[in-house]
Specification:
CATH superfamily of the largest domain: RlpA-like domain
Pfam families: EXPB1_D1 (PF22514)
Distance between the termini: 8 Å
Organism: Pisolithus tinctorius Marx 270
Protein name: Expansin-like EG45 domain-containing protein
CATH architecture of the largest domain: Beta Barrel
Keywords: Signal
Radius of gyration: 20 Å
Shape: globular
Number of strands: 6
Strand content: 15-25%
Strand order of the largest sheet: 1-5-2-4-3-6
Largest sheet: 6 strands, mixed, barrel
Bound molecules: 2-acetamido-2-deoxy-beta-D-glucopyranose
Domain Expansin-like EG45: 53-190
CATH class of the largest domain: Mainly Beta
Amino acid sequence: MFLYRSTLLPAHRSFVLSALLSLLSFALASDWIQYPSNGYATMTHYTLPEGFIAACGCAINSTLYPTAAMNQMAYGSSTSYGPACGQCFNLTLLDAFTASPPFHPNTTNSVVVKITDLCPYAEQGWCNATTSRPNAGGEYLNFDLSWPSASISSTFFPSDASYYGKDPGYSDFGVWNISYRSVSCEYWEGWNNSAALGSVANLGYVSCCPDNPMLNSNDTCPSYSDQAGISPYFHAGSAVTIVPMLLSPILPILLSVCML
Ligand SMILES: *[C@@H]1O[C@H](CO)[C@@H](O)[C@H](O)[C@H]1NC(C)=O
Ligand SMILES: *[C@@H]1O[C@H](CO)[C@@H](O)[C@H](O)[C@H]1NC(C)=O
Ligand SMILES: *[C@@H]1O[C@H](CO)[C@@H](O)[C@H](O)[C@H]1NC(C)=O
Ligand SMILES: *[C@@H]1O[C@H](CO)[C@@H](O)[C@H](O)[C@H]1NC(C)=O
Ligand SMILES: *[C@@H]1O[C@H](CO)[C@@H](O)[C@H](O)[C@H]1NC(C)=O
Ligand SMILES: *[C@@H]1O[C@H](CO)[C@@H](O)[C@H](O)[C@H]1NC(C)=O
Ligand SMILES: *[C@@H]1O[C@H](CO)[C@@H](O)[C@H](O)[C@H]1NC(C)=O
């Protein structure tokens, strides 16, 4: 960038810059995983305390209802909000395929979740799928369910204590094979509570959480990281829920300073 500064006129410089930026955003956009409206996925769970503002910036009272984070490359942004924000999915537990032997419950438990958070990309773990390779369950989508949750039964994840209970690790299998289906948020438990819908008002442009966006519809959120020229593989660190909120307003400013 310093080279351009010394050798090009400002007009040329901005032309080169915008050409570079458009090339860059093309390269970035192709890294996001496109997925069908229904299929198989893996499901893990994580702790999102009630009242926390997660990456999308959804209304705080969304945490009173079933919510989930989606793996970064499918979520569509490496920080703050992305196209997955606000979308609702019906998730159905199939089997705990990492159990030994695999566990096939005799119940069919489902939950309709709203996506409010980003499950960060990392080399290891269940959120590590990319367009070119799935996660260790052979899937391109991982739903990280916020659980325990006041709105989801404590027995949502079945086990068989008489068989697996001898091993303490096996009352909670940690990861499940599930089927998912994109559904209208009218089926989400928080739908009738207006305080659970929409974005946190005073966050302004760093929040995007539509009431009822549908997969591939024209009312989904843009990719925050694409817009700000941040790498799709950017790693916000383990403090998923807070760090993006703090970083997001700062990053574009840092980037534009570097480009001057
Ligand atoms: C969710 O999936 C389960 C299992 O297929 C089904 O019984 C239930 O009706 C579905 N719920 C919605 C809202 O689609
Ligand atoms: C993704 O993470 C899993 C562990 O969950 C690991 O076994 C696998 O090697 C990782 N994939 C890649 C390509 O690193
Ligand atoms: C998940 O379940 C489906 C349907 O039974 C099956 O085709 C798929 O292989 C399973 N995936 C894993 C990782 O067990
Ligand atoms: C379903 O499985 C549980 C253990 O996973 C067992 O306790 C229960 O008896 C089973 N119910 C039926 C109807 O088979
Ligand atoms: C919302 O309220 C309507 C009218 O009372 C009811 O039919 C619907 O089931 C409710 N939706 C949810 C998701 O609870
Ligand atoms: C959110 O729910 C809590 C109760 O859990 C309530 O005290 C608070 O007023 C609600 N917030 C809004 C914005 O409605
Ligand atoms: C979005 O799509 C709907 C139909 O799905 C259409 O009626 C509406 O005009 C579209 N809005 C924009 C801004 O393109």
